[in-house]
């Protein structure tokens, strides 16, 4: 059985099934990208006609390291890092 996850949709064989989409966004206290990120996510969800649970959390360096975040903003879609890199902590 092969399944492909594509931004909130799971396509399995020839059928397409919707799944719950969760987007978690983590930002450093001084991250200037928060508002732009929010607008971009809203627009992408609208264009793709996807409903998602979206959270925004401001975290400090200590919490970022504990959570193994790798930059700001740091975004997970359904628990998957959308830009994996090697170094933990905020850049």
Features:
91 residues; Glutaredoxin; four-stranded mixed beta sheet; 2 helices; disordered N terminus
Verbal overview:
- This protein is an alpha+beta fold and 91 residues long.
- The protein has a single domain (20-91), classed as 3-Layer(aba) Sandwich (Glutaredoxin), CATH 3.40.30.
- It contains 2 helices and 7 strands; from the N terminus they run E-E-E-E-H-E-H-E-E.
- The protein has helices spanning 34-48, 61-67, and strands at residues 3-6, 9-12, 15-18, 21-27, 52-58, 74-77, 80-81.
- Strands 5-4-6-7 form a 4-stranded mixed beta sheet, with no helix packed on it. A 3-stranded antiparallel beta sheet has the order 1-2-3, with no helix packed on it.
- It starts with a strand and ends in a 10-residue tail after the last strand.
CATH architecture: 3-Layer(aba) Sandwich
CATH overall fold name: Glutaredoxin
Question: Span between N and C termini?
Answer: 39 Å
**What helical percentage do the residues reach?**
10-25%
Number of strands: 7
Helix-strand pattern: EEEEHEHEE
* Form type: globular
Structural domain count: 1
CATH class division: Alpha Beta
Strand residue percentage: 35-45%
User: What is the CATH homology-level superfamily?
Assistant: Glutaredoxin
Rg calculated over all Cα atoms: 15 Å
Q: By helix and strand content, what is the structural category?
A: alpha+beta
Main sheet overview = 4 strands, mixed
Number of helices: 2
Task: Point out poorly predicted stretches.
Answer: 1-14
- State mean pLDDT (0 to 100 scale): 80
Strand order of the largest sheet: 5-4-6-7
């Amino acid at each position: 059985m092969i399944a492909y996850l594509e931004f909130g949709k799971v396509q399995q064989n020839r059928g397409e099934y919707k799944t719950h989409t969760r987007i978690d966004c983590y930002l450093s206290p001084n991250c200037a990208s928060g508002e732009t990120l929010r607008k971009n996510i809203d627009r992408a969800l609208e264009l793709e006609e996807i409903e998602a649970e979206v959270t925004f959390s401001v975290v400090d360096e200590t919490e970022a390291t504990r959570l193994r975040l790798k930059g700001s903003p740091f975004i997970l879609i359904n628990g998957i890092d959308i830009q994996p890199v090697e170094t933990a902590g905020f850049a």
